[in-house]
Design a protein that fits this description.
The structure holds 3 protein chains of 3 kinds. Chain A has 8 helices and 4 strands. By secondary structure, chain A is of the alpha+beta class. In chain A, helix 2 packs antiparallel against helix 3. Chain A is elongated, with a radius of gyration of 18 Å. The radius of gyration of chain B is 28 Å and the shape is globular. In chain B, the strands form 10 sheets. Chain B has a 7-stranded mixed beta sheet with strand order 15-14-27-26-25-16-17. The N and C termini of chain B lie far apart (83 Å). By secondary structure, chain B is an alpha/beta fold. Chain C has 3 domains: 21-229, 3-Layer(aba) Sandwich (Rossmann fold); 232-325, Ubiquitin-like (UB roll) (Roll), CATH 3.10.20.600; 330-427, Up-down Bundle (de novo design (two linked rop proteins)). In chain C, strand 3 and strand 4 (156-164) form a beta hairpin. Chain C is globular. Classes of the chains: A alpha+beta, B alpha/beta, C alpha/beta. The interface between A and C is large, with 56 and 70 residues. The structure holds flavin mononucleotide, iron/sulfur cluster and FE2/S2 (inorganic) cluster. Iron/sulfur cluster (SF4) is lined by residues 170, 188, 345-349, 352-353, 398-400, 402-403 of chain C.
């Protein structure tokens, strides 16, 4: 899959309509595209450019500013490991070393089976559970080596599918109400 | 609360500040960096560019500025002066901040100056030499990127050298309006990047190279060509199109290597289009003509000048003797300088005695119309309430005028732009568009501008009413004051008569409106001004006004109006033209009625071509006279505003090519006459004393030479003040660092000089009498079985100039016809297939592409998309028709 | 001794279902909005003014004053800053996940008071659960009639949009947040104008307030600004949600009355931080997020009071306290914080982009054992190029205050623990070995 699917195009148009100016939907649309393909494909960026009235270079330029948006393929599960101050004080680098050993990849790399990518994250605002990690933006912590191994096992075994959706799926609750009426959105356009 | 107003208070018009302890009166709203500069204090900078909005990101220009909470470091490029402000540019704190920024910029900047194109003219290098610490404290590893990557066909990027000033990205987004490059990633990882699937192919990409303050962006055509210290330069005027941007031409070892844009307020404000910028490649192209050629035994062979001139003169003399002077005709001249054009006008009209002279190739507008309509300037268009653009995609034809209009439309007090065009153009992003079918321009304009007699005829009502509302709301006066009309032959599928009808109707109903002719060939306006048009004499006067010329060395002036290019060709086809002289014009390729050209050339006894490059017309000539072209001769050119500016010789012409005026003189001499020009200055002088609106003006007079802005004719009686902008060495790094020669470069403070017109202005309005009462003409309706042809120009085409330039030739638009998908479906042809287009004139087979945005009745095809021997749009055009209808056939 | 008032913003959090509208309504939810809609907008704003509620986003600007600066215009916006990314700060995260309706209600009241025409809640992208809870709450509130047309029949209408961020600390800075909300790179805007109230979202007047700031509004309207102002002392009124982390036994969030508690209480009281892990010794602590200069044990008795902390040379900032103990390598800690800023610099300003990078490289080199004694002066001098004087509050050579925040931890660490730096340099490695 590359371009936005018909269903996602429909979602995208509804997202655009929420904002006074269509460019404001750019980041939500990037999340949407990531929920489809796991990362931002070039084709999706072209679609987003068209939907928001900017150039594709601007979509990519904007998207790459943000850590959550990937323009290269990533694993099904992206494990963001916080090493910032509170987690550092709780042993984050030791955990990171353990994780690299367990998965056999370094920061920024994806396991050969395409299951896991590990990233070094900045503070994830869960310092009371340091050291903590996010898997596809769902929190786990505090973790030690054994806890990390259990997490990998659970993920691999599919025991966490409800809690941790595929990479790119951010918000499973859609805006169901409060959309502008068609007339209003037209007037805005 | 009642407002108390002190009647006594006199509005102060300046802002008093102190700069490094010295009192200075700044202009209200002026940026500190600019005020300081006018006060003689130069504050270092990188991201600031005088022609873009300040962003204050590089932090190089930090100075101490007083505020409510005392002195603090502030970016002087962003902050504006405030009454009573104290500004310290040289305090210990300011110096430490500036030196700190410089050191930081250098931490990750490679030390590859010796192999960097910018080395020697690099502001970063200059700053580092002037202010930087002797040795570096930075011992860490620098950032590494893959070395230069091609980001577009003409531009390469070395990311290691980038200092993230954002000048290029801001230029692309804010000035050119095409953000094909943008910053990607964040923080220390920031890089300038195009989208992987979309290269940076903008017509304006070269400007980013010019304004890059380091060697991060380089121009493919210039890379490693020269070192700044080997360059020589001369200030000149671009001959790429009729906008006439000011440039410097830079050469190394006798060859042009680079053109850069010069900042003049009236025209290009330092920008150039890529066609102009890289046009120097055509000067040294392999197909330049370097020796006269004579057709002998069926082949063109080199000859001496003496032989060639004798041959041409003999043919002319024979023709005059046997068939009368009108059997000799001259076509072309729009690529000559004014002085060269004047010499040929004098040769034709005074010596030979023919008035069948035309600088336009059937792709222009009647000269009386162009010269007679009240003219606008580019600045006045940019400040107008409304601009009505008729038919022309300005980005394709007059690119820098497009930039200026775009700027006007995006400005705070925005100019309303209305684009009346068969095919939606690049203006659509900021203009209100009204689409029409070629042939209907005049009646469309009548509806948009609510002209008397306007009648509805099935235009898109939504578009039409939006345009009418936009025009009505724009604030133009009832007589049309505040409106500028830009028009040329934007669609060659529509005849000059239709455009004339639109313009005359507008002028008649809205006498306050001003016009900017969108004729594109570089010096077409100068050539018309110099009398290279039937019925006209030099100086925008008609044949009745030849007295000044006779008094100044002309033998005679023609008594009757001669033929224009198309009627000349028709006469030739009928066997009435014996000698045809072309002046730098490729008739075979450029006249939009190729069948007519073929018939005509087949019948002409002698074809004399005066040319710079080998082209299709040269190849069928009897005698070829090679002349000096752009950058090989000095003179003046006149742009679409009527602005006269010098173009300067920088290199020598190839082989034995002569300046064109000498060719004219020598032909005259062999005809037993004397043009009276001992040297170039003599022509200049004669123009300044004898040529109507040009009286009082010559290259020799300081008036033109010293003014970067040039001078607009007709001169008015009131003295005008022209400010000569100081060139910001950071905005134009390559210019200010190079040896200066030729016309003087101002690098001091702003100069203001009064230009006083000594001559009573000549009115050109009477030229319009030629046309009588305007009437609205239009082409017949397209029936259900035909399509209307829209023939559009592209900036990069198969013309001689583009094709002679190695970098641009590959960028030329291919010959592809665009059709509405339904038209394709009806034909049973798929997108990308081939269709036969048949007009009353001929038929061609072309590849087709579906375009759902088009009117279903249209076929859009590029002008000039044929190479040698191949077919193109001009094979379909009948110059006698208001519009061209074609049948589509699947094959 | 801890004197603590009843919680204001965390009073519902003990409930499992605190984030649902049922629980919200059962605990007085949307009563504040109902009350506000019976008042004039001016009267609502006046209550908040009386409360002297200081912004909880870090800068501590009085909310009432900010609102009164809003330029009157047909279109204006309320943008709620939920980008919480300051390291060691996790209070907004809690409020978003556990009490989204309280944020929505506070925002609605604020929008009413300032006459905004649309509300955007900008939620940090990494808070996936928070985003889902916020969106669900928004949907519920629409259905309940608290958002949308003619709210509670009072004639006030407004739309509220939950907007996800995408991972960039700098988008917490309000002008970068607005750029991001406009679909652009999160580049902070150059000042002046200094306040979005003048030139905000889409160039329109805009108020940007923090999540915690908004969460206080319903209580203030229901209980009166005076009741709020009665808590705390001086300019520091009400309660604050403190986030405690690092080498303490009981890391977590604590809602405490302003000023009445000291750092010592927060860190050592058994009902709060519970003391240092393994009963070790406290070495230093950061009083208000990693942008703040560090304090040593001698400052433990300062009250949790904006002015007091400011006078002592740091800030209460985002209300997060990080504790370092004798097992902490301060060079490593300061390096990691520097690395954070280096990674999060938006990259516009040369001093921040290049200076941050350079500082990170030097700090890493020292920590890894390649340091030289001259590096300490060099570090301070590079700091000086970003924040001239390296004093507090910082002066700046940059567009936003991320840049001048970089020197805080480096300067603190060098000034407080010069010997440890020298030990690193002498030993050619971290003398603490595997220290955290
Ligand atoms: C680098 C930087 C990061 C910031 N991050 C946040 C943040 O994550 N959340 C927040 O509410 N305010 C943050 N702020 C402060 C905001 O700019 C702004 O002052 C605040 O949102 C205003 O809300 P308040 O007045 O309610 O505190 C940050 C400021 C800076 C300079
Ligand atoms: S100080 Fe840093 S984060 Fe702030 S605007 Fe400048 S570069 Fe960006
Ligand atoms: S910040 Fe002023 S020139 Fe860059």
């Amino acid at each position: 899959m590359a371009h936005l699917s018909a269903e996602n195009l429909d979602r995208a148009r509804r997202l655009v309509a929420v904002y006074p100016k269509s460019r404001s939907a750019l980041i939500p649309l990037c999340h949407l595209a990531q929920s489809q393909d796991g990362y931002l494909t070039e084709e999706a960026m072209v679609d987003i450019a068209e939907l928001t009235g900017v150039t594709a270079a601007e979509v990519r330029g904007t998207a790459t500013f943000y850590d959550m948006l990937h323009t290269e393929p990533v694993g099904d599960y992206v494990i963001a490991m916080c090493t910032n101050i509170a987690c550092l004080l709780g042993g984050a680098y030791e955990l990171l070393e353990h994780a690299e050993g367990r998965l056999g990849v370094h920061i920024g790399q994806t396991t050969a089976d395409g299951n896991f990518t590990i990233e070094e994250a900045e503070c994830l605002a869960a310092c009371d559970t340091a050291p903590c990690v996010q898997v596809n933006h769902r929190f786990f912590g505090p973790l030690d080596g054994a806890g990390f191994d259990r997490l990998i096992d659970d993920l691999t075994a599919g025991r966490l599918v409800d809690q941790v959706p595929r990479h790119g799926v951010l918000n499973r609750v859609e805006r169901t109400v409060g959309l502008l009426t068609e007339n209003e959105s037209e007037a805005r356009a | 609360m009642t407002e108390v107003r002190n009647e006594e208070t006199v509005e102060k018009t300046t802002v008093s500040v102190t700069i490094d302890g010295v009192a200075f009166e700044a202009n209200p709203g002026e940026l500190i960096i600019e005020a300081a500069e006018r006060a003689g204090v130069y504050i270092p900078r990188f991201c600031y560019h005088p022609r873009m909005e300040p962003v204050g990101v590089c932090r190089m220009c930090l100075v101490e500025v007083s505020g409510p909470r005392g002195l603090s470091l502030q970016p002087s490029c962003y902050l504006r002066v405030v009454e009573g402000q104290e500004i310290l540019t040289n305090s210990e704190k300011a110096r430490k901040a500036q030196e700190g920024v410089l050191e930081l910029l250098l931490t990750n900047h490679p030390l590859d100056c010796p192999v960097c194109d910018k080395g020697g003219e690099c502001p970063l290098q200059d700053q580092a030499m002037a202010h930087g610490p002797g040795e570096t404290r930075f011992i860490e590893e620098k950032r590494h990127w893959a070395k230069p990557i091609e980001i577009g066909p003409l531009v390469a990027l070395d990311r290691e050298r980038c200092i993230q000033c954002s000048r290029c990205t801001r230029f692309a987004a804010d000035v050119a309006g095409e953000a094909l490059i943008d910053f990607a990633f964040r923080g220390a990882e920031i890089e300038v990047a195009p989208f992987p699937l979309e290269p940076f192919s903008s017509y304006f990409s070269g400007n980013t190279v010019q304004i890059c303050p380091v060697g991060a962006l380089t121009a493919q055509p210039y890379r490693f060509k020269s070192r700044p210290w080997d360059l020589e330069q001369a200030e000149s005027t671009c001959e790429g199109c009729a906008v006439g941007c000011r440039t410097v031409a830079q050469s190394s070892a006798g060859a042009l290597v680079r053109y850069l844009g010069v900042d003049v307020d009236g025209v290009n404000r330092s920008w150039l289009c890529d066609k102009g910028r890289f046009g120097h490649e055509a000067v040294h192209a392999a197909n330049r003509l370097s020796a006269p050629l004579l057709l002998r035994e069926g082949a063109l062979t080199e000859s001496t000048w003496s032989e060639a001139i004798s041959f041409a003169a003999a043919a002319i003399a024979d023709a005059i003797r046997d068939h009368g002077a009108e059997s000799v005709a001259v076509i072309g001249g729009a690529r000559l300088t004014n002085e060269d054009a004047y010499a040929f006008a004098k040769l034709a009209k005074s010596i030979i005695g023919t008035d069948s002279v035309d600088a336009q190739l059937g792709d222009g507008l009647p000269a009386e119309l162009v010269l007679g309509l009240p003219r606008a300037t580019i600045n006045s268009a940019a400040l107008a309430k409304a601009v009505l653009v008729l038919g022309t995609d300005l980005r394709e034809e007059l690119p820098v005028l497009y930039l200026r209009l775009r700027g006007a439309a995006m400005a705070k007090e925005a100019t309303t732009v209305i684009d009346v065009t068969p095919v939606t153009t690049s203006l659509a992003a900021f203009a209100t568009t009204v689409n029409y079918l070629p042939g209907d321009l005049a009646r469309t304009v009548a509806l948009v501008a609510d002209l008397p007699g306007a009648e509805g005829f099935g235009l898109d009502e939504t578009q039409l009413s939006a345009a009418r509302r936009a025009l009505a709301d724009s604030g133009i006066a009832a007589d049309g004051s505040g409106l500028v009309v830009v028009a040329g032959r934007g669609d060659l599928g529509e005849s000059a008569e239709v455009v004339s009808s639109a313009l005359l109707s507008l002028h008649h109903a809205l006498p306050g409106a001003r016009f900017l002719p969108a004729l594109r060939r570089a010096n077409v306006h100068g050539a018309l001004d110099m009398g290279l048009a039937p019925g006209l004499l030099p100086g925008r006067v008609d044949l009745d006004a030849g007295g000044d010329l006779i008094a100044n060395g002309w033998n005679a002036v023609p008594r009757a109006r001669g033929r224009d290019a198309i009627t000349t060709l028709r006469a030739a086809a009928d066997g009435e033209i014996k000698v045809l002289i072309t002046l730098g014009a490729d008739l075979v390729a450029d006249v939009p009625d190729r069948a007519l050209v073929r018939e005509a050339l087949a019948k002409v006894s002698t074809l004399v071509t005066v040319a710079t490059h080998d082209d299709a017309t040269v190849r069928v000539a009897n005698v070829v006279l090679p002349v000096a072209g752009e950058a090989e001769r000095s003179g003046t050119v006149t742009n679409l505003e009527g602005r006269v500016a010098p173009t300067t010789q920088k290199v020598v012409p190839p082989g034995t090519a002569w300046p064109a005026w000498i060719v004219a003189s020598e032909i005259a001499r062999r005809l037993g006459a004397d043009l009276g020009f001992a040297d170039f200055a003599a022509i200049s002088h004669e123009i300044s004393v004898a040529a109507g609106v040009y009286r009082g003006l010559s290259l020799g007079s300081a008036r033109v030479e010293a003014r970067r802005e040039g001078v607009i004719v007709p001169l008015s009686n009131t003295p005008v003040t022209i400010a000569t902008r100081r060139l910001d060495p950071m905005a134009t790094p390559g210019i200010t660092s190079v040896t200066e020669q030729g016309a003087q470069m101002t690098t001091g403070r702003t100069e203001e000089a009064a230009v006083e017109a000594l001559i009573a202005p000549v009115s050109t309005a009477a030229l319009l009498d030629h046309f009588g009462e305007p009437s609205i003409v239009f082409a017949p309706k397209v029936d259900a079985y035909t399509h209307r042809l829209s023939v559009r120009r592209a900036l990069y085409d198969q013309g001689t100039l583009v094709q002679s330039s190695a970098s641009m030739a590959p960028l030329a638009a291919p010959l592809i016809a665009q059709l509405h998908p339904q038209s394709l479906a009806a034909l049973g042809v798929s997108d990308g297939g081939v269709v036969r287009l048949r007009s009353s004139r001929g038929s061609i087979d072309v590849t087709v592409r579906a375009n759902a945005a088009l009117d279903r009745r249209l076929v859009v095809i590029p002008a000039r998309a044929e190479l040698d021997g191949a077919v193109g749009a001009f094979d379909l055009i009948d110059a006698a028709e208001f519009a061209i209808d074609v049948q589509l056939e699947s094959i | 001794m801890i004197t603590n008032a009843d919680p204001i913003i965390t009073r519902r959090i003990a409930f499992e279902d605190s984030y649902t509208i049922e629980r919200y309504l059962a605990t007085g939810g949307y009563e504040g909005l109902r009350r506000a809609l019976t008042m004039t907008p001016e009267a609502v704003a006046e209550e908040v003014n009386k409360a002297s509620l200081l912004g909880r986003g870090g800068a501590g600007f009085p909310a009432g004053r900010k609102w009164s600066m809003l330029r009157q215009a047909p279109t204006s916006y309320l943008v709620v800053n939920g980008d919480e990314s300051e390291p060691a700060t996790f209070k907004d995260h809690l409020l978003i996940e556990r009490d989204p309706h309280q944020i929505i209600e506070g925002s609605l009241i604020t929008a009413y008071a300032i006459g905004a025409s649309q509300i955007f809640i900008f939620c940090r992208g990494e808070f996936a659960l928070g985003l889902e809870r916020l969106q669900a709450a928004c949907n519920e509130a629409y259905a309940y009639g608290a958002i949308g047309k003619n709210i509670f029949g009072a004639g006030f209408s407004i739309d509220l949009v939950i907007h996800p961020g995408a991972g960039a600390y700098i988008c917490g800075e309000e002008t970068a947040l607005l750029e991001s909300l406009e679909g652009k790179r999160g580049f902070p805007r150059i000042k002046p104008p200094f306040f979005p109230a003048v030139n905000g979202l889409y160039g329109q007047p805009t108020v940007v307030n923090n999540i915690e700031t908004m969460s206080n509004i319903p209580w203030i309207i229901l209980n009166g600004g005076d009741a709020f102002a009665a808590l705390g002392t001086g300019a520091s009124t009400g309660t604050r949600l403190f986030a405690l982390s690092g080498r303490v036994k009981r890391p977590g969030w604590y809602e405490l009355e302003m000023s009445k508690t000291t750092f010592r209480d927060l860190i050592f009281d058994p009902s709060l931080g519970g003391g240092i892990i393994d009963d070790g010794t406290i070495k230093a602590f950061i009083p208000g997020g990693v942008s703040a200069p560090w304090f040593g044990p001698d400052q433990l008795d300062l009250g949790l009071d904006q002015e007091a902390v400011g006078k002592a040379g740091s800030m209460l900032g985002s209300g997060s306290v990080v504790v370092m103990d004798d097992t902490t390598c301060v060079v490593r800690a300061a390096w990691r914080i520097t690395r954070f800023f280096h990674r999060e610099s938006c990259g516009q300003c040369t001093p921040c982009r290049e200076g941050g990078t350079w500082l990170e490289q030097i700090m890493r080199r020292i920590e890894e054992g390649g340091g030289r004694e001259s590096d300490l002066d060099l570090l301070m001098d590079v700091c000086d190029n970003i924040a001239p004087g390296v004093s507090w509050p910082p002066q700046q050579t940059t567009i936003c205050v991320l840049g001048p925040s970089i020197p805080s931890s480096i300067a603190s660490a060098i000034r407080m623990f010069r010997d440890e730096f020298l030990a690193h340099i002498e030993a050619g490695c971290c003398p603490m070995g595997g220290a955290r």
